[in-house]
Structures are given as structure tokens and as C-alpha cells.
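Q: A reviewer asked whether we had any structural model of the full assembly, not just the individual parts. We don't, so I'm hoping you can provide one. Inputs are below.
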Amino acid sequence: MNSQAKRLNKILEHLRKNTASSVKRLSEELNVSHMTIRRDLELLEKQNIVETFHGGVMLRFAGLAGKNNDYSLLQAATSMAEEKIGIGEAAAKLLKSEDIIVIDSGSTTEYLARALPRALPLTVICYALNILMDVTKRENCDIIFAGGQYHTNTLMFESPEGIQLIKRTRASKAFVSASGISDRLGVTCSNRYEGSTKQAVMETSMQKVLLADSTKFDRVRSTCFADLKDFDILITDEGIPPEYREYCGKEGIELIVV
Amino acid sequence: MNSQAKRLNKILEHLRKNTASSVKRLSEELNVSHMTIRRDLELLEKQNIVETFHGGVMLRFAGLAGKNNDYSLLQAATSMAEEKIGIGEAAAKLLKSEDIIVIDSGSTTEYLARALPRALPLTVICYALNILMDVTKRENCDIIFAGGQYHTNTLMFESPEGIQLIKRTRASKAFVSASGISDRLGVTCSNRYEGSTKQAVMETSMQKVLLADSTKFDRVRSTCFADLKDFDILITDEGIPPEYREYCGKEGIELIVV
DNA sequence: CAATATATGTTATAATTATAACATCGCTAT
DNA sequence: ATAGCGATGTTATAATTATAACATATATTG
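A: Here is a predicted structure for the entire assembly that you could use as a starting point for your response.
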């Protein structure tokens, strides 16, 4: 790891502790010139990790900057950011007043959490820290959080009791993310605990919406939690392969491309 | 409520959503001059509610500024702040490596969450947003969160499943807060849901530590969840009435006064 | 090892924010 | 009503931060 990467990690560490900081403080803390800090922050800002303003910086993705994530992981989490913003906004447009929605864990779903229309009264069910942090900032919003053991790499909480809580709850719409989508091998994620929770969500929601950027197609991960055709709506970006467009048409899945 | 109080609430509301902001943004948002904002922020800073720096402001007690708390409530939450800091630090001194601890909801316990020694590997069980936010910033720390319905005024999550999760978990030490303490009428809190959760915690922890500033003595709230003598340790400040000192001696409760 | 590229530091200047003193507005009490 | 007072707005000046261009140091590559 080069010195810049080290510094970027130190900056993020500092921000995780303090949420916000100033260029001055950072340059003093890290013993580098203010220009170096500025250039570092510029990088971090381009990747949507921090937000700068005259006099300071603040963490944007408080959640995603989980304590064990180093800079490279953060990069991954912020890749395809533009596409994900579009997907989140498109998902938010589906919402109606009094909807009871599940927001799954993941970085794509976080953009939905941010795009939730402030005016609509909603009930939100979730189980990931980044989602929770966005939702608790909202008003007009009942929150149900399924707790459990905290997983720092996915920012997700999981437990039998959490799954139980989801199972006795009913949602009008579930917004689910995935790490891999294959017509033949189904919709997959990377961890067993994610799979169990997602399955519970699929069981208890009226409408199931899959949120995934186009890099997820024709990719598999270890844990399959649903068939693609189990979903009612698929929201993705222009990069979706033609054969998946066809598949959606054939299976009656509403396709929303942003 | 006069116009200044209204504005202070609006500022806090804005900060709750954005964590940090700038004088410029606030003055534009609220249509007042930057001087007015500055004077408002000066007030809020004096009360330890926000922290200002060149170019901006940020919330200090992110958790405590729950969205439904108005300005007057915030004041209450930050009262006895010095005593509470001491109590939190004293509680942190009790911790040993590999301890499994419960941190109850409340403002006093938040100071413990902040004072957790960074070096010690710990498992933390909690169910309140302000505690969670502090604990997730830490490393060397397994987190178990008991979820449920979110209560904005106490920042606490509660559900049968959450209680179930607590009940099947064992802790070496529980750090519990209270709204009222009476030798005759027991230890009380304000809400039924708080009581059920606290009771579950009392049942499943080896050592029970009560954290309360001295304003809580000889005060009762609606929901009783324990007798004072059920606790092994009581941490409070110098203001503790003499009769409670005696009571602790008689009942074998270790008293720590900060 | 030289040559090049990249990262960091320095400086001067521009832009923004902070402070302080004073002016004005609007409420309250008589 | 109006005098008085507190709250808010205005302005000029000081302090701080941002930007850009250039200089220097450090790392990389053939």
C-alpha cells in the first residue's frame, strides 16, 4: 500500500470517528500540507465517499465506511455509483403512500433509502446499518429493524430472531439486491446469512423488486436465494444483456432500465 | 414557542438529516442572515449540542438528537453531562478483556459506549440507535443488536423477537440506566417496552450495574423493572442522598461515586 | 542509473467565512 | 400609542480557506 492509500485510509478512519473534519485539522493530524489533503479529499469526493464544503469534509456513506473496510473495499462499494443512483431513484418512484417496504442490505439499496420521497408516509423494514442510518433521518417513517449479529463487511445484522421478525411481518413491496443474476442458476449472494434473510423477505412481500446494476448479470455467487422469475420487477441500467431483456419479456417481469 | 426556538429546532432538524452543515446553507435554508445563524449556533455550542468550526457546524450528540425531540428535550438530554461522562468512564473501568456486555438505552449509557477502551476485545449487546452508532465505530468489538419497532423518542428498538434474542444470549455484565430510583418503589422507566427489555437483560446477565446520575433518586416513573437491590453495582455522582448510600451498604451493593 | 511520471510542497492570489460595531425591526409593557 | 428592549439585519474589516501555477521531492520504468 503506497503512502497516498495509507493517508486516505487514515483520513477515513479519522472521519469515521469524527464524522466531519476540516482540511486544517487533517493536515495537522497527518503532517502533510493542506494541498495534499485537498487533493486526497478531491479523490474521495469523486468517488462519492465524502462530501466537502468550504472549511471541511464529511463522510457521506457513514455506513459503508465500516471500520474494517479499507480504502480498496470502499472503492468497490462506490463503483457504478451513477447507475446505482438511477436505480435507487427509479425504485423510489414505485412507492405509494402507506406502503410497507423492505429495503435489503447492499450499496444499491442504499441509494433507494436516500431517494425515499419525504412526503410519503411509509413503514420501512430493514436489517443493515447503512440503510438504517438513512431511514432514521427521515420523518413520516415507521421503522422496523431485524437485529442480530453484526457483520462488518456487509453492514448487515442477522439472527434467527431477526428472520422470525421478518416472517411475522408483511410488506407491500420488497426491494432486494443481489451479487449475481443468472437465468439458469438463479439470483445469488455471497453469504449464507444473507440468503436466509433474503428468502424470508421474498416469502412475506407482495411485490418483489430486484435492484441490480448490469455488472451482476451472468455472474454467480455461492448462495442462491431466488429464481429470477420470482421477481415482479427488475430495475437495472442500460448494460443489461439482450438475452435478459428477452427473459423478462417471456417471464412477465416488468423491466425498468435507467 | 418564539421564533428563535423555532429556528433552533429547524437547525437541529437540518443537522439531524445532514449531520453537518454550513452557516451559508443554514441561512439560505431558513431565510435569515448569517449573523442570526451564527448567534444561534453560539447558543447551541454553549450547551454542547453542536460543534462549530470555520466554515460549518456539526451535531455532537448525533444519537440523542432523535428526530422528534424538540429543543427543550435536547437540553434535558444534555443536562448533567459532566456527571454522566464521569459515570460512563467509571463504568468503562470495570471492563475486562472478552467481556460480553449489555449496554442499555439512554443518554447516560451512551457515555459508556463512548468510553469503551479501544484495546479490549468485547462483545456488545444493545438495542438503541445512539449506542449502536458509537459501538460500530469501534474495532475489536462483536455487536449483537436486538431489533424491533423503532421508538424515536428513546432511540430504542423493541420487539418480542428482540427480547427473545436477549433471552437466549448471556452477558458477563449489564450496564442499565433508569429514569427513577426508589428504595421502596424500585427502579423505574417511562415506557412499558423499555421495561420488558430491561427485565430480559436483568435475567440474562451475571453482573448488573446501574448507571444513574443523582437526579434520579427518589423519583418514580410508571414502569418498574427491578428492585434496587437486584443490582450488584451502582455508579452515580456526588449528589446521591445519604439514605441511598446507607441502603447500598446494607444491601451489599457496591457503590461507585464519581 | 537516467529519464520520466507521479506525488507533494510552496507561494501568491482569489474567494469565502468570521467578527464587531452599529442600524433597524418588532415586540412588550406601561 | 410609544419608550424601551431584545432580536435581527447590515456593513466594513479581519481571518481563514480555496485555487492555481510552479517548484521540488519521491517513485517508477526501461
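A: Points you may want to mention in the reply: Residues 127 and 146 of chain B are 5 Å apart (CA to CA). The longest strand of chain B covers residues 171-177.
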